[in-house]
């Protein structure tokens, strides 16, 4: 209160004079600075660094996920749509790009328990071999990880028995995720393109 009264006294003095001395300006400046320190004005900030103490509370763990991916290209219940590609397809389909909403299940059968969906896209990224660029979110809808997801971005050389792709992120319980996914084709119909792929995913997260 004494600081506020002192400021009021200085302001009243200022109003009663036509000319204000340099010492009065100095006093006003000091008072304004003091009040700004006592009552700081906060605004938006562009970034904020976490302290080491907060960071140390995060404990990293690794989770193993096992499921089956059903890529249904043919029929009325297709879960894949071609969204881009060259006017004339090459032998490998180079440039063809598909958007997917594929089922993820506990077992290899399509009627097995659904545990999530693979939503994203893949495109044929090689001119002389069957290799895909995978840009995919695996969104889980069952159990503890309901609402969480992991994101894959990598090369999928389809005809290899086992393919490794990186996990580049995640959401929910998989926030700040990193790791890798191992894919193994269980069934592939070369005529329709329908496929069932087994996934073993190892995710490090907090």
UniProtKB/TrEMBL annotation:
Gene Ontology annotations of biological process type: phenylpropanoid biosynthetic process
Q: Which residues cross the membrane?
A: 25-47
Entry keywords, A to Z: Apoplast, Membrane, Secreted, Transmembrane, Transmembrane helix
Q: What family is reported?
A: Belongs to the plant dirigent protein family.
Primary residence = secreted
Q: Name where it's found.
A: Secreted, Extracellular space, Apoplast
Descriptive protein name: Dirigent protein
Task: State the organism of origin.
Answer: Erythroxylum novogranatense
Is Cytoplasm among the key words of this record? no
Q: Determine if Transmembrane helix is one of this entry's keywords.
A: yes
- Supply the source organism's classification: Eukaryota, Viridiplantae, Streptophyta, Embryophyta, Tracheophyta
Which is one Pfam family of this protein? Dirigent
Query: What task does this protein carry out?
Result: Dirigent proteins impart stereoselectivity on the phenoxy radical-coupling reaction, yielding optically active lignans from two molecules of coniferyl alcohol in the biosynthesis of lignans, flavonolignans, and alkaloids and thus plays a central role in plant secondary metabolism.
Complexes and interactors: Homodimer.
An annotated GO cellular component of this protein is:
apoplast
């Amino acid at each position: 209160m004494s600081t506020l009264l002192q400021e009021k006294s200085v302001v009243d003095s200022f109003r009663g004079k036509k000319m204000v001395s340099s010492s009065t300006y100095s006093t006003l400046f000091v008072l304004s600075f003091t009040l700004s320190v006592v009552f700081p004005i906060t605004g938006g900030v562009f970034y904020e660094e976490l302290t080491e103490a907060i960071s140390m509370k995060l404990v990293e763990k690794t989770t193993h996920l096992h499921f089956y991916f059903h890529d249904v290209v043919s029929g009325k219940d297709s879960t894949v749509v071609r969204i881009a590609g060259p006017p004339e397809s090459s032998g490998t389909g180079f440039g063809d790009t598909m958007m997917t909403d594929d089922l993820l299940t506990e077992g290899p059968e399509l009627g097995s328990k659904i545990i999530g969906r693979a939503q994203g896209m893949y495109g044929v990224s090689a001119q002389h071999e069957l290799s895909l660029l995978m840009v995919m979110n695996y969104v889980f809808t069952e159990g503890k990880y309901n609402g969480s997801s992991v994101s894959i971005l990598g090369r999928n050389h389809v005809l290899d028995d086992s393919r490794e792709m990186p996990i580049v992120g995640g959401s929910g319980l998989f926030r700040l995720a990193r790791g890798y996914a191992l894919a193994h084709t269980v069934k592939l119909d070369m005529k329709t393109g329908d496929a069932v792929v087994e996934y073993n995913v190892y995710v490090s997260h907090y």
